[in-house]
Amino acid sequence: MNEQTRKITYTALMMALTFIMTSLIKIPLPTGYIHPGDGAVLLSAYILGPWGGLIAAAIGSASADYFGGYGAYVLPTFIAKGSMAFIFGYLMKRFPDKNILLGMFPAVIAMTAVYYVSEVIMYGNIAGPLVNVPFSLLQSVFGVVLVTILHKPLERFRLTPVKF
C-alpha cells in the first residue's frame, strides 16, 4: 500500500473511531453529555499528525453531534475538536522528544476555550457557560489518560505528518 493510500485509510479509520467513541458511550448531563471521544481525537493527532488529525477529529466529532441530535453544536464541535487535534499534532511534530503530556494540555485548554466562547455566543450570557467548563475538562482527562496508556502500543502505526 502506498503512503497516500495509507494516509487516507488511517484518516477514515480514525474518523470512524472518533464518531463511535463519541456516540456509543455517553454520560448524560443537563447541558449535553460527556464521552471518551477526546481520546480518539488525541489519538488521531498522534497517529496522523496535525492536518490528518484535524480532519479525522473534526469530522468524526461533528458527525457524532449531528447524528446524536445536537445540531446546534456541530460547528463549535468541528472547530473545538479540530483545533484540539491540530494543536496536539503540531506540538508532537514540533517537539517529538518532549513528554506527550506537554502537548495535550494546550490542546485541551484550546478545546475548552472554543466551547466556552461558542456557548457565550449561542446563549448570549457570559456566566451560564461556565457551568460546562469543568465537564469539558473532565471529559478531556479521560482522553489524556487513554492516550497516555495507548501511545506506546500504537507508536508503530504513526504516519509521517502531511506536509503542506
Give an overview in words.
The protein has helices spanning 3-23, 37-67, 74-94, 100-123, 133-150, and strands at residues 27-29, 32-34. Helix 3 (74-94) packs antiparallel against helix 4 and helix 4 packs antiparallel against helix 5 (133-150). The chain has 164 residues and is mostly helical. Helices cover 70% and strands 4% of the residues. Strands 1-2 form a two-stranded antiparallel ribbon. The longest helix is centred in the N-terminal third of the chain and has 31 residues, at 37-67. A hairpin with a 2-residue loop joins strand 1 and strand 2.
Structure in a nutshell:
By secondary structure, the chain is mostly helical. Helix content is 70%, strand content 4%. The chain has a two-stranded antiparallel sheet.
Shape by Cα distribution? globular
Largest sheet: 2 strands, antiparallel
> Per DSSP, what share of the residues sits in E-state strands of 2 or more residues?
under 5%
Q: What helical percentage do the residues reach?
A: over 70%
**Number of H/I helices:** 5
Strand order of the largest sheet: 1-2
Counting helices, strands and paired strands, the structural category is mainly alpha
Low-confidence stretches: none
